[in-house]
Amino acid sequence: MTEFAVSARGVTKAFGGVRALSSVDFEARWGEVHALVGENGAGKTTLCNILAGIYRADSGEIAVDGADRELRNPAQAIEAGIGMVHQHFRLVQPMTVAQNIHLGWPDTPAVITHRALIERTQRFMDEIGLEVDPTARIWQLSVGEQQRVEILRVLARGARVLILDEPTAVLTAREAAELFEVIRGLTASGLTVIFISHKLREVLEVSDHLTVLRQGVRVITRPTAGATARELARLMTGEERELGVEHRTVTGAPALELRNVSARNDRGIRALHEVDLTVRAGEILGIAGVSGNGQTELAEVICALRALESGAVTLDGTDITGRSVRAITDMGVGHIPQDRIGVGMVASAPVKDNAVLHNYWTEPFCKGVKLDRHGVIDFAKRLVETARVQTRSVFATAGQLSGGNQQRLVARREALVADRVLVAAHPTRGLDVNAAQEVQATILDKRDNGCAVLFISDDLDEIMLMSDRIAVIYEGRIMSVFDAADADRERIGLLMGGHEPAEAGV
Amino acid sequence: MILADMILALIDNAFLSLVGSAIPASTVVLLAATGAMLGERVGVLNLGQEGLIGIGAVYAVIAVLSWGVGSPWLAMLIGMAAAALAGLVFAVAVVVLRANQVLVGLALALGGIGLSNQLGTNRNGTPIGTLFREVNPGGGLDDGGFFEAFLFHDPIVYLAYVAVPIVLWFVLQRTRHGMNMRAVGENPAAADAVGVSVMGSRLGYTVLGAALSGAGGAYMVLSFTPIWSPDIARGRGWVALAVVIFASWRPGWVVVGALLYGSMISLDTTAQARGWDLPFFGPSDLSFLLSMLPYVVTLIAILIPAGAAKIGRRVRATAAPGALAIPYSREDR
Amino acid sequence: MSSTRYRLTRRLDADAGLATMTRVAGALGAIVLVGLLLLATGRNPFRILIDAVDAIFGSQRGIEGVALRAIPILMTALGVALSLRMRVWNIGSDGQFLIGAFAAVGVGIHLDGPAWLVLLVMAAAATVAGAAWILVPALARAFWDVNEIITTLLLNFVAVQLVTWSALGFWRDKKAAVIQSTRQVPVELPDLPGTDSLTIALLVPFVIAAGLWWVFRSTTIGYEIDTIGGNPRAAGFAGIRVRRRIMLVMLVTGAIAGLGGMLQLSAPGAQALNAGFSAQFGLSGFIVAALAGASFAGVLGGGVFIASMFYAGLVLQTKGLSVYIIFGMYGIILTGIALGEIAARYRLERVDGAVDGDAEVSGGATLEGATT
Fold it and tell me: Which residue of B has its CA nearest to C284?
């Protein structure tokens, strides 16, 4: 066995003329946790996708255990001993855990029965030391359990190198701690774990070596021992960054109020349980929580995109429950949706049409059924300019914009709509530092101008930075609400994992 | 009273003769629906069934009349091979080149109808001598009752109604291969990530499905109506696509759906044979009404599961494969 | 530079102008392929082309023949093009066309009155009938999420049976000896000045195309339909009543096709209905709409083009080309269009060599999707 489990030399990859990786070298040793850190867009996932045979490098070589390997597809990568767990799980929702583990696997018996698959799955779980109900269908599982299925699937196939792409992004604090234990157990038995993250705290806690990527180039590879978060942050961004936010305590009448609100999700399962919340004009209420605990439904309920099962929503004292999207938008409620491409814009339509998506029916654009084309174009041009959206013209389709530009467009558009309330769901997710800071500045500006802001994020650091008050959501319930001054990171972390205030020591 | 007579027909042994004639009448639809379902289970919607039936039929005719093929089996294989070739062209366009499945599917329907009609031009009305013969178990079972309804068909009927559905069910539900196949139709990215060849299974099953549809066409001229006539499919390809929806992509229910269609067809025959009549209408009017019935019933059959799901507030209206008609490319997500 | 390689990359979203060009190129490529096929079967495609051009442009009769066929093709094409703006596939325009004609005949042979009144009622009846014929698929699509492709198509067969029944049964012209058809409608549309055989029906598709063009250029309704077509969830986000708009578009689509049936029926010499009345105008219209994409002006151009082919095909039947070849040709052209459409999404890109300084914004979506 050679020293390096995997090594890549001079790997280059471009997408649509833009370089994602430029001649990157990378090595990971046997039996170590190797963290791959960098900003969004630094090329971490691209590099790992190449190692896992998902993408093919434009140039460069990859060696596994010292021998050059051609990794044309995921099957060859698995054969070479490399398996990857993606950030977005590659599981077939209507199938069972046992079926998913046996998918596409030559070792699966040619003729199968449910029982045989379940027995085999149980055996792997015993060997590897991970437990999930093998008969459950994927959609019935929590995110943490789904991740375990992915890891099981890779390890059952004999992977010796396990790549985890942002594995903790969707986990509670407790689930993350459990995952780290699993990782340590694996490396103790000689496996290599490559771990993508931009959460420096975790990287320093769990890794042995780390590699920093910036804009598709390797900046450094070094032992984790002795590294500091501050130093890594500088290496990742190439600059010191600091966004000073002054937290405020706002009193006065609530602008937005939710009383006893319950609602169901798309599957018909109750996603919000008797939620009570108030947001005052001129404050940011942060909603802290792990993704998928009702945040999306919360935003949709406020913006009239989802029906309430019970309860009421009021805006400046007026009951707006059951009003139409139009009516609520006209009252000055803006919404930066979580899924900006899927919900917040029309990728195939020009930028100009997307610029007015949430107010095209209002003056001055609309007179009767007539839409003022020139007015729309002028408005879009101004919006593109103030939001600093980089585009060839307002006639180019929104799908041709980069993700950061799409987000800037949607954020500024909604900020203009939001006279009274702005609901921002994960508004900086997937953005690089500069774009994220611009969006944050836009939101802070709205607050300073007297808008009530509901700020949803699963990044606790960002919640702590932005919010004047913080509400913690878990399984559709508001666990507790803090003033920013009293907010304690540990306690919020526990509450996000569903530990009752009593247990959490409140 | 006609309604009473119809109801009587359903309960006395005329029901059996109805089923007995429905079985061969729906074999073409059944084979095409099975072929369409096969492609759809791996995520490829092939709207070209009408054309594939035509191609399968005309090449079986050519095999018998021009190439002197003396075995109906061989003629059917030739029809299937021709349809498979057309299916391959379709599959390359939509799977490899990722062209729009609806457009290319319609193109296949049109092109197939045109091609088969053109090739069949000189063979209009020539009887086809090489036919499948019915299986006769003997023993005096041809009593016009139960046994005659379900026995005494030709071998293709048994293959289409029994062997193919059972094999398909087994492959889909009880084999590793079938599990991988279903994954390709549900979530190709997931299947790809674990090394299932998305392109391979989509190409393979689209072509195999086309061959089955071609077998339906060949059966048409080798047994059901042993003579070539233009537009031979007469809408059966479209009905087949509807049957797949009605069946919620399950092999067993495809059989039920095809029989439902066949019963509507043979109701017309039964009506003529029994001299049914309608008040206020002329004698031939019932026949016109009944000729609309298969399409209307098929339409209603599609609406029933969707409507029931909506009314019952189930979220997933149908069991359509999750990635149906969506081209897959590994590098764009 | 010798190390420079090129390869195709794909993007999520094609430039509209480029896509139109590649679609047309695909269609032309398909026609060349048809020519080669004719050549391979021993026919001279150039001879056929010359004959066709001569048949069309050699006389006023030829040009008017094309215009006459263009009317039904344009009407169905406009309806389909409208539905395609919303990504709704109305494959049932043949049926709606037939039912429009059926309703018009029903009015025409039963209503006595001044010709203008009869014609107006015929047009109204045809419009309503065409819309009614798509009502069930529209309701199913809007409220039960039932895909409209098969439902609209199945109703074509019902329409054919109904029309056959009327021609052979309840409205049969007892005096007609050869072709079995319905009785003749006694009125016809006013002639178009300066032509021998055309009526003012020719103006209707142009008026409708202009109207649709205006709706999509300058109204919120057009904006909403485009938004639903582009991203139904974004339409919901913007508060657009998606179901109402689906109903509106599908009913109008059927109405236009139905009116097309009435126009066809009131052309001189065609004032009765028979089983072969439609001649698959709906399919021709579908191809025109697919070729034109989102552009109504494109529909007009494409419609005239396909009508020329259709007419040439009819004329050339006498020279040994069967009508079936037209069908086969349609299939090949449609494939060419589909491939052309997809071609616009690919672009040739340099992999190696000098560093690309201008990391342009297009293709960014792919990049974002690919990196973290």
Answer: B110
- Sign of the dihedral through C-alpha B256, B257, B260, B262: negative
One-letter amino acid identity for B21?
S
Task: Tell me the pLDDT band of B2, cut-offs 50, 70 and 90.
Answer: low
How far from A9 is each of A2, B157, C230, C281, C291, CA to CA, in Å? 16, 61, 42, 61, 48
d(CA B40, CA B309): 21
With CB atoms and an 8 Å threshold, state whether B186 touches A153.
no
Sheet holding A310-315: strands in order across?
Answer: A270-280, A254-264, A310-315, A318-319
Contacts of A396 in chain C (CB under 8 A): 362
Minimum distance, in Å, between the CA of residue A56 and any CA atom of chain B: 10
Residue A386 to chain C, least CA–CA distance (Å): 18
pLDDT for B188: 93
Minimal C-alpha gap between A441 and chain C (Å): 23
Give C 180-239 residues with CB within 8 A of chain A.
217-223, 226-227, 230-231, 233-234, 236-239
pLDDT of residue B200 exceeding 90, the answer is yes
Write the DSSP symbol of residue B161.
I
Task: Tell me how long chain B is.
Answer: 333
- Mean pLDDT along residues B64-72: 89
Judged by CB atoms closer than 8 Å, whether chains meet at C151 and B302 is answered as yes
* Residue B224: per-residue pLDDT: 78
* Owner of token pair 């091979």: B81
Q: Do A125 and A152 contact (CB within 8 A), yes or no?
A: yes
**Which residues neighbour C334 within 8 Å (Cβ) at sequence distance 6 or greater?**
B103, B104, B106, B107, B110, B111, C30, C287, C290
CA distance A1 to A23: 26
| Highest mean pLDDT of the ranges A183-187, B130-134, C37-41, C193-197 | A183-187
Taking CA atoms, A417 is separated from A360, A371, A410, B166, C50, in Å, by 11, 18, 11, 59, 62
Distance CA B63, CA B56 (A): 11
Lowest mean pLDDT among A17-21, A39-43, C362-366: C362-366
C360 touches chain A (CB under 8 A): yes
pTM of the model: 0.85
Integer angstrom CA distances of residue A403 from A169, A278, A399, C54, C342:
19, 32, 9, 55, 23
CB pairs under 8 A between A and B: 80
Beta bridge partners of A288: A457, A472
Backbone angles phi, psi at C172, to 5 degrees: -60, 140
Instruction: Identify which of A175-179, A331-335, C44-48 has the greatest average pLDDT.
Output: A331-335
Contact list in A for residue B315 (CB cut-off 8 A) is: 266-268
Q: Which residues of B touch A (CB under 8 A)?
A: 174-177, 179-180, 182-183, 186-187, 189-196, 313, 315, 322, 330-331, 333
DSSP per-residue string spanning C247-274: HHHHHHHHHHHHHHHHHHHTSTT--S--
Among the partner residues A86, A93, A102, nearest to B179 by beta-carbon distance:
A102
From the list C10, C154, C328, the residue facing B118 with the nearest CB is: C328
Cβ of B51 within 8 Å of Cβ of C331? The answer is yes
- What ipTM score was computed for the predicted complex, to two decimals? 0.83
How far is Cα of residue A162 from the mean position of the Cα atoms in its chain?
21
Residues B130-140: b if buried by 16+ CB within 10 A, e if exposed: bbbeeeeeeee
Query: Given an 8 Å threshold on Cβ–Cβ distance, is A344 in contact with C237?
Result: yes
From the CA of C350, how many Å to the nearest CA of chain A?
Answer: 8
Mean per-residue pLDDT over chain A, rounded: 88
C-alpha span between A24 and A60 (Å, rounded): 8
Contact at CB, A371 and C220, closer than 8 angstroms = yes
d(CA C150, nearest CA chain B) in Å: 6
d(CA B163, CA B165): 6
Q: For B63, how many CA atoms within 13 A lie in the half-sphere containing its CB?
A: 25
